[in-house]
Amino acid sequence: MPKHPPSRRLTRRHFLGAAGALGAGGLALPSFLGGRLAGATTPRSTPPAQGEGGSLWFDNWPEYIDLTEDGYVGTVDRFMQATGIDMTYTEVISDNNEYFAQIQPVLGRGDTIDADIIAPTSWMAGRLISLDWVDQLPLEDVPNAANLRADLVNPAWDPTGEYSLPWQTGFAGIAYNIEHTGRELTSTEDLFDPEFAGRVGMLTEMRDTIGLLALAEGIDISTLSSFDEAAPAFERLQKAKDSGQVRAFTGNEYIVDLEAGNFAACIGWSGDVAAINVDNPNIRFVIPEEGGTSWADTMLMPKGAMHREEAAQWMDFVYEPENAALITAYVWFVSPVDGIRDHVAEIDPELAENALVFPDDETLSRVHTFAHLDEDVEAEFDAAFSEIAGA
Fold first, then answer.
1. pLDDT for 312-351, tens place per residue?
2. For the chain, what is the domain count?
3. Are residues 142 and 22 in the same domain?
4. pLDDT attached to residue 70
5. If you ran DSSP here, which 8-state letter would residue 201 be given?
6. Nearest one of 316, 321, 324 to 139, comparing CA atoms
7. Which residues contact 65 (CB under 8 A, 6 or more apart)?
8. Among 218, 250, 271, 315, which residue has the least CB neighbours within 10 Å?
9. Same domain, 113 and 220
10. Residue 333 has what DSSP assignment?
11. Which residues of the chain have pLDDT under 50?
12. Same domain, 209 and 284
């Protein structure tokens, strides 16, 4: 087992709230040159060593993989050393809709983008699959896909399992500061407790906020197909905002508000709270008794991707349990690879016991994936949510 990965500083979810502050720090978004996506950030990599050679380009979220640092050799560099493939690994996805707006003009006219692999969230993956903007994966050349968790086989966003493989997964539930709640929270109903009026946060991620509220209303979010089915959740959110129960809609800056006491409770993401809880045990996370949402960021191959063989080698490499464990030890989200707990225990014994990183079967049975929506229904959901959230 290689040396322990460096400590996580920003997760893919943290970036959603911190993107503005990073503007002057050098994380450049891509620009379009010659009809192809180009101009990515400098990859965190070194020249390849021995191997078969070739090239590969992966667009991902920031700080979403273990890095080469302080004598530790990260996953990208180990992959290049093992295969000889010259990999360009970028951190250019900061928001699903923003990234879609960048690739839409290119893929929409039938051209290709530079990236051979991209990692949108599952609902966006479903949209790209529906648009026929992605190629089938070379699964026959990814034998380690057999290590995939059973609950991620043939997922709702890719029912045949031909177009996507998950990168990392996690949950949305209730995050709270017990110093300011004075008690443990267990239910989405706790967010509507008058005691917490003006100290409740909701996420700007529509599927997680509406998902939790819909589950609390007894709505099956995995089968939604019309706005009317979810209307009770939108109505309750509107009332909570109008009454002053909701203080703000945020990205990941909810962590700052929780620690400061501006929020007593809010909707939050599992991996973020797992990491913060190490230093601040007052910040806690619970999947509410009515259920939480489950999300996955997924690896797709855009239409016309040129390096299929190299992409297969990468996917196979990161699905090796030892390699997956090293990524998990850095990102603190739930790995899509089954059976890595013992490997993580060799790196970080405490992390291997963290229930937010290694949830049990009962926990997994209480989280639900938001349904894939048709384009017109998606637009209706987004418009209604934006009007409430003020986005």
1. 999 999 999 999 999 999 988 999 999 999 999 999 999 9
2. 2
3. yes
4. 83
5. E
6. 316
7. 44, 74, 75, 76, 89, 327, 330, 331
8. 218
9. no
10. S
11. 9-50
12. yes
Q: Within 13 Å of residue 204, how many CA atoms lie on the same side as its CB?
A: 16
Cβ-based burial of 110 (10 A; exposed 0-12, middle 13-18, buried ≥19):
exposed
Residues 140 and 252 in one domain: no
Q: Are residues 47 and 124 in the same domain?
A: yes
* Helix (H) / strand (E) containing 266: strand 265-269
Rounded distance between C-alpha atoms, residue 207 and residue 61, angstroms: 19
- CA distances to 64, 68, 173, 371 from 269, rounded to whole Å, are 15, 26, 6, 19
Tens of pLDDT along 31-66?
A: 222 222 333 343 444 444 445 679 999 999 888 899
Strands 134-135 and 301-302, bridge-based pairing: antiparallel
Q: How far is CA 229 from the centre of its chain?
A: 26
Same domain for 305 and 324: yes
Identify the domain containing residue 266 by its residue range: 171-294+368-389
Question: Which residues, at least 6 apart from 47, have a Cβ–Cβ distance to it below 8 Å?
Answer: 80, 86
What's the pTM?
A: 0.80
